[in-house]
């Protein structure tokens, strides 16, 4: 796959899903031949399925996209249904909104995190506080471990190429030791140079005992529009994590998070 051709947006008419759709519209643009599939899963909200709701949405974005919005309306478990749609529609990227941690947002966070950790395609999570689409600077967060499957960087390349965005590769030094010189890190560097091509801007190491704080501070200081991570829950060469960093970023980040799978 050399380009993104189909994007899935879970949509239930909530503010979080509307924000995700706005992001997808901005990402696709008016001229690109990219299809957006909206998935309405019955039971994910209490809104009545009125045809005019869908018609209003299609009319609103008719002049902003080359292709008409497509709908998939299904019953079932939200996450499993989305995974099924991902397979049948050959989805290249999922863009999903999420609410704040408080109140009803907790359930939505659970669904978002479950989808992110179970999906085998890139998932871009748009936070509830996000204001306006922009994608010029991306921060790819890496640890000291070897990248388990460097091919997933191809997805990041396609996004960077689509938006002509530059990629900063960031490692937060949260433990004592020497960073950047191990065999694994040298292998990572070669993979990054190969897959990210001219979109690779710089390699950065910053010291912070709190990884989440380090990422957040860097994002603010350097006007980062998207933070990309490679969760280790499916790790082949090391002990899988439980996606703690992924979950923390989804819950707390002020900028969108791209989970590469």
Automatic annotation (TrEMBL):
<dbReference type="InterPro" id="IPR006015">
    <property type="entry name" value="Universal_stress_UspA"/>
</dbReference>
<dbReference type="Pfam" id="PF00582">
    <property type="entry name" value="Usp"/>
</dbReference>
<protein>
    <submittedName>
        <fullName>Universal stress protein</fullName>
    </submittedName>
</protein>
<dbReference type="InterPro" id="IPR006016">
    <property type="entry name" value="UspA"/>
</dbReference>
<feature type="domain" description="UspA">
    <location>
        <begin position="6"/>
        <end position="127"/>
    </location>
</feature>
<comment type="similarity">
    <text>Belongs to the universal stress protein A family.</text>
</comment>
<feature type="domain" description="UspA">
    <location>
        <begin position="150"/>
        <end position="260"/>
    </location>
</feature>
């Amino acid at each position: 796959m050399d380009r993104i051709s189909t994007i899935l947006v879970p949509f239930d008419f909530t503010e979080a899903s509307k924000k995700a759709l706005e992001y997808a519209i901005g990402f696709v643009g008016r001229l690109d031949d990219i299809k957006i599939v909206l998935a309405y899963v019955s039971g994910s909200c209490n809104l009545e399925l009125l045809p005019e709701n869908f018609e209003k949405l299609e009319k609103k974005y008719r002049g902003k996209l080359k292709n008409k919005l497509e709908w998939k309306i299904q019953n079932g478990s939200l996450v499993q249904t989305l995974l099924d749609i991902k397979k049948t529609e050959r989805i290249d990227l999922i863009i999903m909104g999420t609410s704040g941690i408080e109140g009803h947002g907790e359930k939505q966070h659970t669904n978002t995190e479950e989808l992110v950790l179970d999906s085998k395609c890139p998932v871009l999570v748009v936070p509830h506080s996000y204001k306006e689409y922009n994608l010029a600077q991306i921060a790819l967060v890496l640890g000291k471990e070897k990248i388990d499957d460097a091919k997933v960087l191809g997805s990041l390349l396609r996004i960077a190429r689509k938006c002509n965005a530059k990629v900063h590769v960031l490692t937060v030094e949260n433990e004592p030791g020497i960073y950047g010189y191990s065999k694994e890190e040298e292998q990572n560097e070669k993979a990054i140079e190969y897959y990210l091509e001219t979109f690779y801007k710089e390699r950065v190491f910053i010291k912070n005992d709190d990884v989440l704080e380090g990422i957040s501070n860097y994002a603010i200081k350097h006007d980062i529009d998207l933070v990309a991570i490679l969760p280790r829950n499916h790790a082949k060469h090391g002990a899988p994590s439980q996606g703690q960093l992924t979950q923390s970023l989804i819950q707390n980040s002020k900028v969108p998070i791209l989970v590469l799978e």
